[in-house]
Structures are given as C-alpha cells and as structure tokens.
Design brief:
The structure is a single chain. The chain is of the alpha/beta class and 202 residues long. The chain has 2 domains: 102 residues, Formyl transferase, N-terminal domain (Rossmann fold), CATH 3.40.50; 94 residues, 3-Layer(aba) Sandwich (Rossmann fold), CATH 3.40.50.170. α1 links the parallel β1 and β2. A 7-stranded mixed sheet has the order 3-2-1-4-5-6-7, sandwiched between helices. The chain has a two-stranded antiparallel sheet with strand order 8-9. Helices cover 34% and strands 22% of the residues.
C-alpha cells in the first residue's frame, strides 16, 4: 500500500495540520501527496501551501451529481498516487464512486462517540441530549453517513456550563491526537475488517 495520503478538506484544516505535524515529528510514517478542497477559500489550502504540499480545488458546484464530483476528486487522488484518503472536515457525502475506489482505505474523524450523534453539529446534539460524556471517533468510511467500522475513540467529559464552542474545542484537541494514530494503524496493515467491525492487530 502506498504511504501517500490524500486529505480532503472544506475549511480551516486543523486536522490536516495535526497530520502534517505528526509527520514532521516522526509520529506518522507517511507523506501528504495532495490536499483537495471543494472550497477555494478554505484556510486548509494555505496550511498545505505553507507545508509545500500540492493542492487542488474541485468545486462541487461545477458538477451535476455527487458521482461526477467524486470522479473529479478521484482523478486528483490517482494523479498523486494516493494510497489512503483522510477526510478532515470535508463537508460532502461521498458517493460509491469514491468509496469503492479505496475500500477500507478512507478514514473520517467525527466529533462524537459514534454511533451517537451522526451528521452535522454533533457537539450541539450531545448538549441537547444532556449526555455526560462525548468525544470523537475515527472510522473507516462506507456508503452510509458517519457509519463504517470504528478504529479508535476518545472520550471527553461534558462539563457544567459547556457551550457548543467550549465542548467542540476540547473534542478537537483529542481529534488531533487520535487521527494520526488511526492513520498509522491503517498504513501499517494492522486493521482487519471482518464483516462490519474493525479489528486492530497488536
């Protein structure tokens, strides 16, 4: 498997930065081959440029369907010999076109303890439900939203007086720790997916 990562973003790219930092510090044995964004103004593109990583903007507005958009994204990933795809705040639902091109090699990080609170505003959902513990999940992507086999999770206590912003900030810190670890597991071939559950080899 190629150890070249393709990172898909839509916004500020803080998890992209965590991946770049982990590579730079020797905690993640990989390289980022390309960063693809569907938003030309995404701050994450600046982060990639500062790190000398190639970037591409593929606007979903230019395509009539999710499948056509994903074909264009896939072309960028293939052009850079990407082996593993990392979704880092990518605000598009993947079609089977992309999912099937990288079976069990697309990762996503989500700010909840899945399967709880899928979709947008997971932190707000957690607060509205009055849970005492939230957190984040790294999972393999399948054809369902925020579904796929779970690789790693980290719990984050919900504190008295938490707002969506304060809870989100604490969860984000754990995301930055967790994501590079999960990517390394996949690159090292330690993830097995019998059925719908992921098993991590020791």
């Amino acid at each position: 498997m190629s150890r070249t990562l393709g990172v898909l973003i839509s916004g500020r790219g803080s998890n992209l930065q965590a991946i770049l930092d982990a590579i730079g510090e020797g905690r993640l044995d990989a390289r980022v081959g390309v960063v693809v964004s569907n938003q030309a103004e995404a701050r994450g593109l600046e982060r990639a440029n500062e790190a000398g990583v190639p970037t591409a903007v593929v606007s979903h507005k230019n395509y009539a369907s999710r499948e056509q958009f994903d074909e264009a994204v896939l072309a960028q990933l293939k052009a850079h010999d990407v082996g593993v795809v990392c979704l880092a705040g990518f605000m598009r639902i993947l079609s089977p076109v992309l999912v099937r091109a990288f079976p069990d090699r697309i990762l996503n990080i989500h700010p909840s303890l899945l399967p709880a609170f899928v979709g947008l505003h997971a932190q707000r959902q957690a607060l509205e439900h009055g849970v005492k513990v939230s957190g984040c999940t790294v999972h393999l992507v399948d054809e369902e939203l925020d579904h796929g086999p779970i690789l790693l999770q980290a719990a984050v206590p919900v504190e008295e007086g938490d707002t969506e912003e304060t809870l989100s900030a604490r969860i984000l810190e754990r995301e930055h720790e967790l994501y590079p670890k999960a990517i390394q597991l996949v690159l090292d071939g330690k993830v097995r997916v019998p059925g719908k559950r992921a098993r991590i080899a020791s």
